[in-house]
Amino acid sequence: MTRRGSLVYYLASWICGGLFLTVAMYLQEQASPEGMGIGPSGAGAAIIMTYFLVLIFCAFLSFVFAFLLRLSMIWLRAENLWQWVLAGMILSLPLTWGVRWASHATDAAGLEGAARQVAVLLFLGLRGIAERHPLLGLPAAALNAAVLFLIHRAFRPE
Predict the structure, then answer these.
(1) What ranges make up the beta strands (E) of 7-123?
(2) What SS3 string covers 95-128?
(3) Fewer Cβ close by (within 10 Å): the C or N end of the chain?
């Protein structure tokens, strides 16, 4: 699993992707009059708590993003950074749409109990971002794809 850097690749997707999304949320908080609701501006504790929550709720989606990105880039034989960044941005759009669809489907199905908790953990933790700020993930996905490109290239068999 580590010969091709898979462990590093997927962990970096999770950790770096969560960090990039938290920074994007913080910048949105500073720029928007309605904000993101992550706490008072400049509050370090609110940013750290947001990062912690993003790590929890983004875990599944960041692994899916990394898997689909690597699979599509290998299939397309993409060898350049700009191709990975562009593909990451494009890939973030259907993932955002999927979170929105999953949130509406969960509401329509009226899931309760354990099924609702699993849906929240897998998809619905990012519901507010996907519904109110759907393009917020674009810069985070681009930066995450750039990091994943560097890791993929470093572990590429020669």
Answers:
(1) none
(2) HHHHHHHHHHHHHHHCCCHHHHHHHHHHCHHHHH
(3) C
CA distance 122 to 153: 29
- Residue 109's identity, in one-letter code, is A
Count Cα neighbours of 49 within 13 Å in the Cβ-side half-sphere. Answer: 9
Backbone angles phi, psi at 30, to 5 degrees: -75, -30
pLDDT digits (tens, 9 = 90+) for 41-98: 556 777 888 899 889 888 888 999 999 999 999 999 999 999 999 999 999 999 988 8
Alpha-carbon span 150 to 148, nearest angstrom:
5
Which amino acid, residue 13?
A: S
Task: Give the CA distances from residue 46 to residues 18, 37, 41, 52, 64, in Å, rounded to whole numbers and listed in that order.
Answer: 15, 10, 9, 10, 27
In this predicted model, what pLDDT tens digit does every residue of 12-32 receive, in sequence order? 999 999 999 989 888 887 777
Question: CB–CB of 47/18 below 8 Å?
Answer: no
Sole residue written with tokens 């770096």: 16
pTM, 2 dp: 0.86
